[in-house]
Amino acid sequence: MTRNEIADVLNDIAVLLELKGENPFKTRAYQAGARTLEALEEDLGAVIAEGRLGSLKGIGEALAKKITELHETGRLDFYEKLRASIAPGLVEMLEIPGLGAKKIKALHEKLGIDTISALDHACRDGLVAGLAGFGEKTQENILAGIRNREAYGKRHLWWDAAGVAEPILARLRGLPQVRRAEHAGSLRRGLETVGDLDFIAAVRAGEDAAPVADWFAAQPGVQEVTARGVTKASVRFEGGLQADLRIVPEEQFAFALHHFTGSKDHNVQMRQRALARGLSLSEWGLEPAEGEGTVKAKAAAGAAKHIRVASEEELFKALGLAFIPPELREGLGEIAAAEAGKLPRLVGAADLRGVFHNHTTESDGRNTLEEMAAAAQDLGWEYLGIADHSKSSFQARGLDEERLLAQIGRIEKLNTAGKFTVHVFAGTECDILRDGRLDFDDVVLARLDYVVASVHNAFSLDEDAMTARIIRAIENPHVTMLGHLTGRLLLRREGYRVNAAKIIDAAIANGVVIELNANPWRLDMDWRHWRRAAERGLLCSINPDAHETAGLAYVAAGVNAARKGWLEKKHVVNTLPLAKMKAWLRE
Ligand code: DGT
Ligand code: CA
Ligand code: CA
Ligand code: ZN
């Protein structure tokens, strides 16, 4: 396990111990250990090998042993036993905003609550408001949190779903009966949240599908098999994610893949197009529309009129269309564009030459400037933009003027030292204050290569005030780009209220870029705004908002969203090579 992953486990242990009501000193010891690891500037492996772990501040001998075990094996017996000893309902309650370990422990001790449904009842009976430290307002907030959790709980982040789906697809492709297999559904379309996973597999001619369905139903992590047929299986994994598998003969693969990729709207329009050409399109095939019997019955009988297609490309071609990338299949004009030969040449991950908006240990990041630069270089990028928080974000250890200027100096030194081929741009994620002024004055901002301006407080302003606030920031000549337009956290928190159209207009008028924050919880500005905005001249920057080296990989989620927004390379500013990027930033 990496240093940061181990820090996560230690923080988790602290929370679990607090839930158990353990001595606060113990809890704090794990938190202190986590912080020490996060701030460690040397290689953890070397520190362990040289036996120096126990001499670091905040890490005693017992903790050193646990960290070593995690580092070497990726597991910790103590942690697993601890988790098993606590009612899962108590841990689940932590997902309700406003409920920390202390409050959950009080609910458990005073009211015997150890599940969310018991908590729901107790709130509705008014029992929670009466507890010391709770009150009516807290009780209301808890109830709202439970309702949100129900609404959100049905969907999953694309990033998490993709993490589950990828190894399944790889194993599916490895089965001896399977000729071809693909993801389908919203996951393949790159939607920001996913209801369930869909897999399509084709078996070799004459092969039995049943063993493939058996394998799918018996995978590790399956909690329940919710449907089972010879050519179909549906399962639910631990954690609630569900998955469907359909198994088809090879000649139906392209039709099934297209159908189950969707979206529903895209499918309806494709069927209409087929009908207008005297054809009938379904998950089973494409054939002349007239005649008797269902398509399915004819397919089963091997009807001769069946039009053969070996791939989705051929399927689209049979209907007079260019291949439509899955990300565009939302029924939003992609079929007309494919007919007219006007599909966009979508931006791809390989087009990115670098990224802006990344944090380091100087504010709330978990890797140093040098570690971030090394990681960006390993990803093949030519430049890395650093944008730590500004002073008003004190909870994120935002930099004041003095620390910012010192950081600029360190970045200049790093660039001239020539240790990395990657060029580091000095920036800031500057808070937009309540009235739209920026957190630094113009003299300081002028020292930077670029400025990301973001809202991090006073979320409850009404739409007009919030819009005016952001536009005022956009009008500051030092602002290069606007960070996370709405501040939403997918499946967790709605964004603040803004008039996106007005802000897009202001950004275009002032030559300011709007970021597509690629953090899988954000994906903000939403892809649904991008097509029209880019047509009108808005530039995008795909920004990982990385708080550690691993976070740089989030650009993959951002590229998905950009593709869903019909963006091409020319719309995305961080596809510029270094020399052009430098020139562009100077302008
Ligand atoms: P999700 O799972 O809610 O994130 O969204 P999808 O798009 O993955 O939806 P899902 O899993 O219910 O079905 C997969 C695809 O199958 C869907 O995108 C289109 C196709 N499909 C499912 N039901 C229908 C239907 O009633 N009509 C049409 N035209 N297509 C359907
Ligand atoms: Ca699905
Ligand atoms: Ca499904
Ligand atoms: Zn931010």
From TrEMBL:
Compartments, record wording: Cytoplasm
Keyword Ubl conjugation: yes
Annotated EC: 2.7.7.7, 4.2.99.18
Main location: cytoplasm
Gene Ontology biological process terms from the UniProt entry: DNA repair
GO molecular function: class I DNA-(apurinic or apyrimidinic site) endonuclease activity; DNA binding; DNA-directed DNA polymerase activity; phosphoric ester hydrolase activity; zinc ion binding
This protein's GO CC annotations: cytosol
Alphabetical list of Pfam families matching this protein: DNA_pol_B_thumb (PF14791), HHH_5 (PF14520), HHH_8 (PF14716), PHP (PF02811)
UniProt xrefs under Gene3D superfamilies: 5' to 3' exonuclease, C-terminal subdomain, Beta Polymerase, domain 2, DNA polymerase beta, N-terminal domain-like, DNA polymerase, thumb domain, Metal-dependent hydrolases
Recorded catalytic activity of this chain's protein: a 5'-end 2'-deoxyribose-2'-deoxyribonucleotide-DNA = (2E,4S)-4-hydroxypenten-2-al-5-phosphate + a 5'-end 5'-phospho-2'-deoxyribonucleoside-DNA + H(+); 2'-deoxyribonucleotide-(2'-deoxyribose 5'-phosphate)-2'-deoxyribonucleotide-DNA = a 3'-end 2'-deoxyribonucleotide-(2,3-dehydro-2,3-deoxyribose 5'-phosphate)-DNA + a 5'-end 5'-phospho-2'-deoxyribonucleoside-DNA + H(+); DNA(n) + a 2'-deoxyribonucleoside 5'-triphosphate = DNA(n+1) + diphosphate
Alphabetically ordered keywords of this record: DNA damage, DNA repair, DNA replication, DNA synthesis, DNA-directed DNA polymerase, Methylation, Nucleotidyltransferase, Sodium, Transferase, Ubl conjugation
Domain Helix-hairpin-helix DNA-binding motif class span(s) in chain numbering: 51-70, 91-110, 126-145
Residue ranges occupied by any DNA-directed DNA polymerase X domain in the UniProt entry: 1-330
Domain Polymerase/histidinol phosphatase N-terminal per the UniProt entry, residue ranges: 354-434
UniProt cofactor(s): Mg(2+)
Domain of life of the source: Bacteria
PANTHER family membership: PHOSPHATASE YCDX-RELATED
Function field: Repair polymerase that plays a key role in base-excision repair. During this process, the damaged base is excised by specific DNA glycosylases, the DNA backbone is nicked at the abasic site by an apurinic/apyrimidic (AP) endonuclease, and POLB removes 5'-deoxyribose-phosphate from the preincised AP site acting as a 5'-deoxyribose-phosphate lyase (5'-dRP lyase); through its DNA polymerase activity, it adds one nucleotide to the 3' end of the arising single-nucleotide gap.
Protein name according to UniProt: DNA polymerase beta
Source organism (scientific name): Termitidicoccus mucosus
